[in-house]
Amino acid sequence: MVVKEKRGRRRYIRVRVRGEVRITEDALYASLNSSLYRAGIRYKVIQFDGLEGILRVGCKDQNRAIEALNDDSSAVVTIKTSGTLRTLREGMVGSEGCARGSRTDGKRGP
Questions:
Q1: How confident is the model over 82-107, as pLDDT tens digits?
Q2: Which of 7, 47, 82, 89 has the fewest beta carbons closer than 10 A?
Q3: Which helix (H) or strand (E) holds 25?
Q4: pLDDT tens profile 11-29
Q5: Total-model pTM
C-alpha cells in the first residue's frame, strides 16, 4: 500500500456546467485543459453526466483549481469540495448506485 505522504492527498471537486445546458465530455475536457492544465494543475475526471461531475486534484492544488474553475471563462463552476468521493456523490442528481459498496439495508461494508 502506498503511503499518503509519498503519493499526496487528493481532493475531489464537484462541478456543474454553467447555464444548465448539457455538454459533451470532449467539451468538458477542452474547457478543463484551457483552465486547469495550462495553470499546471493535474486533474482527473472521475464522473460526469453532462451537467454535473467530479474532478480529482492534488491537495496542494485545490485552491488554485477552485479559482481557475470559478473564472468567468470556464464552462463549469464549483459546487463543493471534499476529501472523499462518498460525500460528493450523496448530493448528485442521478447518482443512485454509483457509490462503491452501497447496500440496500443501510449498513456499511461488504
A1: 999 998 888 776 655 444 444 444 45
A2: 7
A3: helix 25-35
A4: 999 999 998 789 999 999 9
A5: 0.78
pLDDT higher than threshold 90 for residue 110 = no
Give the span between the Cα atoms of 73 and 31, in whole angstroms.
Answer: 9
Helix (H, G, I), strand (E, B), or coil: what is residue 46? strand
Alpha carbons 51 and 20: distance in angstroms, whole number: 7
Give domain 4-90's CATH superfamily: Ribonuclease P, Pop5 subunit (3.30.70.3250)
Q: For 53-62, what is each residue's pLDDT tens digit?
A: 999 999 999 9
Write down the domain spans for the chain. 4-90
**Cβ-based neighbours of 41, under 8 Å, separated by 6 or more:** 57, 58, 61, 64, 65, 68
R_g of the chain, CA atoms, integer Å: 15
Q: Please give the Cα distance from 62 to 45 (Å, whole number).
A: 14
